[in-house]
Design a protein that fits this description.
Bound molecules: flavin-adenine dinucleotide
Oligomer: single chain
Strand content: 15-25%
Largest sheet: 5 strands, parallel
Structural class: alpha/beta
Number of helices: 12
Strand order of the largest sheet: 10-17-11-12-13
């Protein structure tokens, strides 16, 4: 949206907690050591390098004062004439505090990196155990993915591929028959939001690559080692990946009447937040109820992109006192990939699966990535991976000790 407002007469202040845009659909490839994080990130300042009237502030937005038209951020206060909230979503653990504490979510590149580290650290721990510690090894190697939507299906598929093609070469002294990958889904099918054809095919592909899929299964607790299920069963695992729920990232100060199901902001067909003056909302965090989508549009990139474009058009129209255009979603279809050579695709005119769907998935995602260099990097990575079955990115990169960062520098001491 901000790019489309350049030169329109508006002064745009773009506030984001990170100084980069992240391409979320490929987080699972970062987590499974398939690509480097930098190839799916793009610096915001680079996008607007040559644009006047766009001001970037890297800050956390805490709250909005709708009366004073003011937002509080980690940097300072910002006043607005119009506010557009596009803060997306975060993981929803449905009140399971332990799950939040111990499971690994994948909603940001940092979380994808933490997951990559966890997978590799568990392997490093398992390889140091003696043969008679088989039970402990199994717990370290047992991977549980909770949630059978696109994220869960794709990450489970990628880890299964790692187990088959890469890990036995890196850890020749580990018995990978002990490693199990489980996918747990609360409903009766995986890829619930896609067609029956896609759901059935995805289940077939998952099982074919050795993933143990448990449908109609609810999780209730996880203490870091034991995952409890609603039916009373328990699964021992040191790695539970949480891909089961999301809720809107709504800043404080928004009246509760303006917040709907899934903690999303209730908007009208022009994306104006109900009962909030000049506040608008687009993308995952917004909920526009329409006859076709009474519970809001699907929380996917196409909706966010199309709403951003429509919103920018309407802002320009407002400036010229012209007629506003209500938002109408054009569904271009959805896709998910399940390991190497397999994907499912639901396009408006055709539903297909298999190798052609996988090639289509790769093409569509490659084209969607921001920046020619990133696109090239990912293409080369994928090609290399495809030919060699081995990507040498399995690095455990730990963040620096934060306490150390807080130590005064020698210069600080002098001053
Ligand atoms: C793992 C994963 C895989 C996905 N795969 C697909 C896919 O294959 N196809 C598809 O169509 N969609 C996919 N999606 C969904 C898609 O990424 C989202 O629909 C899309 O990114 C929504 O765009 P948005 O602008 O609403 O929010 P986001 O892209 O999430 O952007 C929100 C921005 O707001 C910032 N922010 C949040 N809170 C604050 C705050 N308080 N202060 C400052 N900044 C803040 C965040 O840092 C972020 O940069 C996937 C999502 C995930 C997590």
């Amino acid at each position: 949206m901000a790019t489309k407002l350049v030169g329109s007469g508006y002064q745009v202040v773009l506030i984001n907690k990170n100084n980069y845009h992240q391409f979320q659909p490929l987080f699972y490839q970062v987590a499974s050591s398939g690509i480097e994080p930098s190839s799916i990130l793009f610096p915001l300042r680079k996008i607007f390098q040559k644009q006047k009237d766009v001001y970037i502030r890297v800050a956390d937005v805490y709250s909005v004062d709708t009366e004073k038209k003011e937002i509080s951020t980690s940097l300072d206060k910002v006043w607005y004439d119009y506010l557009v909230i596009a803060t997306g979503v975060n993981s929803n653990f449905f009140g399971m505090k332990n799950m939040e504490k111990f499971a690994n979510p994948m909603k940001s590149v940092s979380e994808a990196m933490a997951l990559r580290n966890r997978i590799l650290l568990n392997l490093e721990s398992a390889v140091t155990l003696f043969d008679h510690d088989e039970n402990e090894k199994k717990i370290l190697l047992n991977v549980v993915v909770v949630g059978g939507g696109p994220t869960g299906v794709e990450v489970a598929g990628a880890i299964a591929e790692m187990k088959k093609f890469v890990l036995p070469k890196d850890y020749p002294d580990l018995n990978f028959d002990l490693m199990k990958i489980n996918l747990i889904e609360g409903s009766g099918q995986v890829l619930n939001s896609m067609s029956d054809h896609a759901s059935r095919k995805a289940l077939y592909y998952l099982q074919r690559i050795g993933i143990n899929v448990q449908l109609n299964t609810q999780v209730t607790d996880y203490d870091g080692e034991t995952l409890s299920l609603a039916d009373g069963n328990k699964i021992k695992s040191k790695l539970v990946i949480w891909a089961a729920g999301i809720s809107g990232e709504v800043p404080l100060g928004i009246p509760t009447e303006s917040i709907g199901r899934g903690k999303r902001l209730l908007v009208d067909e022009f994306n104006k937040v109900k009962g909030c003056g000049n506040i608008y909302s687009i993308g995952d965090v917004s909920l526009m109820s329409t006859p076709g989508n009474p519970n809001g549009h699907p929380q996917v990139a196409q909706v966010a992109i199309q709403q951003g474009a429509n919103m920018a058009r309407n802002f320009i129209a407002m400036h010229k006192n012209s007629k506003l255009k209500p938002f109408r979603y054009i569904d271009r279809g959805s896709m998910a990939t399940i390991g190497r050579n397999r994907a499912v695709a639901d396009l408006s005119f055709i539903k297909f699966s298999g190798f052609i769907a996988w090639l289509t998935w790769m093409f569509v995602h490659l084209m969607a990535i921001l920046g020619v260099k990133n696109r090239l990097l990912i293409f080369v990575n994928w090609l290399w991976n495809y030919v060699t079955y081995d990507q040498s990115l399995r690095l455990i990169l730990k963040a620096a000790d934060s306490k150390k960062e807080e130590q005064p520098t020698p210069m600080d001491k002098v001053v």
